[in-house]
């Protein structure tokens, strides 16, 4: 009995450490890899826009929240006065309110203080630009702008004086003398008189590409570094609205920023355990800015439009079929805005906003994750009109919120009849689901509609729970699943993790790809998985074989391979989901390595619960090494619980 036990133990140990031999077949291209294969999903959730990507630091800058003083408070220092919020009552105006301020501060100061988005982040030595619209009613009043830290200590200051008797814009800048993570801005009025103010704004000078009133440079840099193939915007459930009155309407987000009407963000009240009553959309980050962002990072824009349906988890409200035309016209007008000549109405607006050249829109989504007959009958109308008038635009349609089931099957059946371009599938599940579904697309119809894996993320503690974390366990499961997406590049044309951003002090949903506070940001382990795939995308799919079998989970090893025509590299991605190292040898069939070493990037951790944080932003991050190429083969050891990307330059 002991001998048998020892023999079995020895056999198990030898098999465990036996070298696995893989062959990448470069003699035959399986399919082209779409340039849009790996992309970004943006939704204004978790304070991703206002308070996040959009670098405005003042909350409720025009007093347009339903509670007009939200974010503001009265302050006094030896002076007195009063603040009255007036409303013009003009229902056609996006900006109907302003502050009427009476100042009695000949020997002191009186004014307003703004708290920002969970505080304001100031960096020492940086320049900040303040602006305001103001009108003097009487007297002589001077304004002193003061940046303060959490303790109320002044770290920056500027002054505006000589207000005119009609509405005019004013601006001033200051340089900070210290750093503050949770500062605020105080607006001190001095003198005696009455002044009216509106559109109060504060931006760092250092924005992405130094665009005035632009985007946070550190957050865009993280996106740029991913080299995404597309950016899907503005969501997500944000497109639907809780009801149709509060749906996202792209036309309300373009043109002058001051003319964009503030709207409650649907995530304001979505989760009772994570209420955010101060979550509104200023639309300073609107469709023009989204298109510009996509262009900046080299990605295709993928706007998603409301299809005449509000969120089916909320009101489930739908527009009548005979009243759907304005929604379809919005889609036609968006194509004109993005691609039309400057002589057209919407093309001219694009040019007036500073972009005469077209944005070259190629994709458009109709609805987010709607389902059942009410969606299909509305989508059919969009499909009929858009395919007739703009056959060059590929349409993304919805398969519903689940990756299987009756509603999912119904959507696919009906959309297949229409020969739909791309069908959007969403997957939020535990890590095991992602391992088990790495072969999900192996048996999809190669001649049917293509797949957009529009939203996916492994969940560590159920779905939409606050305990969810961006653990390495989740990221590694996603990597295994992504090898399956890549292996089926003839079916899957686009894929994106969701959601993208989360403010550490103002989030509603987790996990998320990138976390940030008022000054800092970091990528999660999931971010680095996405980045390794997107920066090693390649142009053509190759097969990876082990004894003539596709590598897709045997012995917990998953793999995919591509060829990159630009670099001449064969790129192989390996996921070792086991807790043991795996020795492998990889040979290229049909191509000869042109160098003696291969570049290797590795993500790994023996602790599946490891997360990145502000304190340890790269607890899990790629390491780079070289592996020798001998007799045309690369031999290396796949670390336990690891994603390994091998680049082999070939003739």
Automatic annotation (TrEMBL):
Q: Does the keyword Zinc-finger apply?
A: no
Q: Which Pfam families match?
A: Alpha-L-AF_C (PF06964), ASD1_dom (PF22848)
Report the superkingdom from the record: Bacteria
* Span of the signal peptide: 1-18
Q: Which SMART domains match?
A: Alpha-L-AF_C
Domain Alpha-L-arabinofuranosidase C-terminal spans what residues?
A: 454-642
Task: Please give the Gene Ontology molecular function terms for this protein.
Answer: alpha-L-arabinofuranosidase activity
**Keywords tagged on the record:** Glycoprotein, Hydrolase, Signal
Enzyme Commission number(s) from the entry: 3.2.1.55
Does Signal appear among the keywords? yes
Which EC class is this protein assigned?
A: hydrolase
Tell me its family.
Belongs to the glycosyl hydrolase 51 family.
| Name assigned to this protein | non-reducing end alpha-L-arabinofuranosidase
The scientific name of the source species is Flavisolibacter ginsenosidimutans
Give the organism's phylogenetic lineage. Bacteria, Pseudomonadati, Bacteroidota, Chitinophagia, Chitinophagales
